[in-house]
Amino acid sequence: MSKKVGIPKGLLYYNFYPMWKTFFEELGAEVVTSSDTCKKIIDDGIKTCVDETCLPVKTFMGHVIDLKEKGVDYIFVPRVISVERRRYLCSKFLGLPDLVRNLISDLPQIIDMKIDYYRGEEFMEREILRVGKLFVDGTSKIKDAYEKSLKRQRTFECIIREGFSNTEAIKIMEGKKLDANTKGDLKIALLAHSYDIMDDYLSMGLINRLKNMGAYVLTTNMIERDKIEKGASKLQKDLFWNYGRDILGAGKYFIESEDVDGVISVSAFGCGPDSITEDLLERDYKRDGKIPFMSITIDEHTGEAGLNTRLEAFIDLLRWRKGEIMA
Amino acid sequence: MKITYPHMGSLNMILKTMFEGINVEVVEPPPVTNKTLSIGVKYSPEFVCLPYKINLGNFIEALENGADTIIMLGGIGPCRFGYYGQAQKETLIDLGYKFNMIILDPPHGRLVDFLKELSSYFPDVYWKDALKAFIFAVQKMIIADKFEKKLLILRAHENEIGITTKIFEDYMEKIKNAKNKKELDSIYKEGLEKLKQNATIKREIQLKVALVGEIYLMLEPFSNLDILRSLNELGIEVTKTDFLSDYLINSAFKLPQRMEFKKYAHGYLERDIGGHGLNTVANTVKYAEKNYDGIIQIFPFTCTPEIVAQGIIAKVSSDKNIPVMSLSYDEKTGEAGYQTRLEAFKDLLERRRLKNIKKY
After folding, report:
1. Omega into A8 within 30° of 0, i.e. cis?
2. Identity of the residue in B74, B83, B269 whose CB atom sits nearest the CB atom of A276
3. Maximum CA extent, chain A
4. What pLDDT is attached to residue B74?
5. CB-CB under 8 Å, A102 with B86
6. Exposed/middle/buried for residue B300 (C-beta within 10 Å: 0-12, 13-18, 19+)
7. Who contacts A32 (Cβ-Cβ below 8 Å, separation ≥6)?
8. N or C end of chain B: smaller count of CB under 10 Å?
9. CB atoms within 10 A of CB B66
């Protein structure tokens, strides 16, 4: 019987799931994901973590507990250190497997693959082989699985660039048919970490709410690399968090290009990296003064009504600026 | 050029010595007060950590006093401190200040490279003078840290509340103004003697606590409501696990002490996660194994590496059977609430000791 690998639906799941899934399936394992985020998952996470932990990490813990209860042989909790050279992820990703092991008892085996492109391809290859050996013996088979997973990841990223959210793209990869939402007369850039906006439960369906109000939403992942690089080149010092840099780079790009009607940034309450990047972003938009900017903070106490009111007011502002609403 | 820099414990003393040694005019940032903090909070992002807010307050107060050049340390992540200088610079520009900002990113190599980078900002200074000034500053730093280590034990035995603190402050001022190494040594000897004379109380149960956590909070008494003094005055001997000298040696010059941390943290945290997260976990294990009575972790509210560490050391606490208390600080922290928690922690530690004594 094939071994079951559980992948928690949280944090970088939204960025790398198709790749991870392909890798384990090619090795002959069965991949199981945790259930969609729900009250129980969040409550489990909150009970497990210290209270100052950010909501995405608390939720992730809830998903790990969900997988434990489902009964899997392994849970995949990668230690994602760096996905591009000279740049890191936030501290919580660097210590994630340690945090999971110390906070949750009686776990199945944790696959703590180190993902560290800072150290180059050779290091990654060693890690891939280390993890692959849990399932098969042949080196070439593991390398093959890794190559296939990289290819899947490229397809996934292409789908996102066509205008699908990460969640939609995952569905498409699994065979669903969806239409790209490039309609909407207002173009809004939603600058945030994917795990803050892709989980519909955490963000309270933020993207769909905006779509229903007639907006065409552009996330950081949908934006072409060269645009982000162009924006990021204006930073006085290169930023060492890659996702934070993407957010800032995209933000700076839109100030120049002026091809969005408004910009919304979303961050989790108490997020360390975002406290700095959001301040820099907001400062840029204030100085420039041409494109309206709004920032939203989410935590486990965020209320739906408050969020809706703010979104409606923001959309009204954008429409009023376009002359669609008379004062 | 009138130079200023942020406060961080005894850093002021060291930088002042160093810059005056190369004849650069220094505008000391005024001592950290509630006013400093209020100014900093007003212009800082909401969720940024307390050190950022205090630093920004220092800069504004020093610029108001005539400073025109700010020196700040940088970093290469993943702790957000590495980008503080850039964010603070933008804030000060928006507030309309005219200044230069020198942000020193930590060297990737040797001490010499660091000094070279620093000296490139001061073309008129001779390399030899700079080195001499630097060495003397480091000597002061080492003496000051040694003196404080003694204080943190002796103050728990002081004959009259506040007396050793007074002596300590007087002698730190003397160290700050010392002109040469010989003077420095005699000040230290005299100060230590005085501390000893005024700290002779002995207790039946002598508690020992290790303070772990984020470096700024540990070094700057204002930011932690002077927790060291509070603990000492409750009669507890304290070991502070990070001093300025350790910080400079470990972080700026990358000596292999990190290996020691990795060894202690093994099994709990397998790599450096930025900031002082690894140090916190390693020190908790280290002092738990040294049979200390308890561990207190202090860090700024929203500090990500310390939050990760906080979750992990809770496990260390139950594995090694040692009480651990975590305290996070921001501008809204109230003194009375924290004092109560310290007193309760002391009671807990005392009861555990009593229980152990009865066993035998």
Report:
1. no
2. B83
3. 71
4. 85
5. no
6. buried
7. A4, A5, A6, A7, A67, A70, A72
8. C
9. 10
**A49 contacts B48? CB cut-off 8 A:** no
pLDDT at B88: 97
Whether the CB-CB separation of A48 and A61 falls below 8 Å is answered with yes
| Cross-strand bridge partners of residue B300 | B329
Evaluate whether A265 touches A292 at the Cβ level (below 8 Å).
no
Amino acid at site A230: K
How close, in Å, is residue B264 to chain A by CA atoms?
14
What is d(CA B224, CA A16) in angstroms, rounded to the nearest whole number? 41
Find chain B residues with C-beta within 8 A of A276's C-beta.
Answer: 45, 48, 80, 83-84, 87
pLDDT band at B360 (very low <50, low <70, confident <90, very high): low
Tell me the pLDDT tens digit for each residue of A86-129. 888 999 999 999 999 999 999 999 999 999 988 888 889 999 99
Residue B248 identity: L
Q: DSSP code of A284? A: H
Give the contacts of B123 (CB within 8 A, at least 6 positions apart).
Answer: none
- Average pLDDT of B132-153? 93
Task: Give the type of residue at A307.
Answer: L
DSSP states of B202-224: --SS--EEEEEE-HHHHH-GGGG
ipTM metric: 0.92
Determine which helix (DSSP H) or strand (DSSP E) holds A141, and give its type and residue range: helix A139-161
CB contact under 8 A, A272 and B80: yes
- Closest approach of B303 to chain A, Cα-based (Å): 6
Count other C-beta atoms under 10 Å from residue B183's C-beta.
Answer: 13
Helix (H), strand (E) counts: chain B: 15, 8
B248 burial class (0-12, 13-18, 19+ CB within 10 angstroms)? middle
Buried b (16+ CB within 10 A) or exposed e, B200-211: eeeeeeebbbbb
- pLDDT above 80 for B255: no
Q: What average pLDDT does this structure show over A142-146?
A: 95
CA distance A193 to chain B (A): 16
Sign of the Cα torsion A241, B314, A12, A217 reads negative
Give the mean pLDDT of B117-126. 75
**CB-CB under 8 Å, A94 with B47:** no
Q: What pLDDT score does B115 carry?
A: 66
Six token digits for residue B349: 């530690």
More confident residue, A64 or B246: A64
Q: B123: helix, coil or strand?
A: coil
The two structure tokens encoding residue A26? 């090619």
Q: Which residue has the tokens 């924290």?
A: B338
- The contacts of residue B253 (CB under 8 Å, 6+ apart) are B107, B110, B111, B114
d(C-alpha A221, C-alpha A219), whole Å: 5
Tell me if A95 and B47 make a contact (CB, 8 A cut-off): no
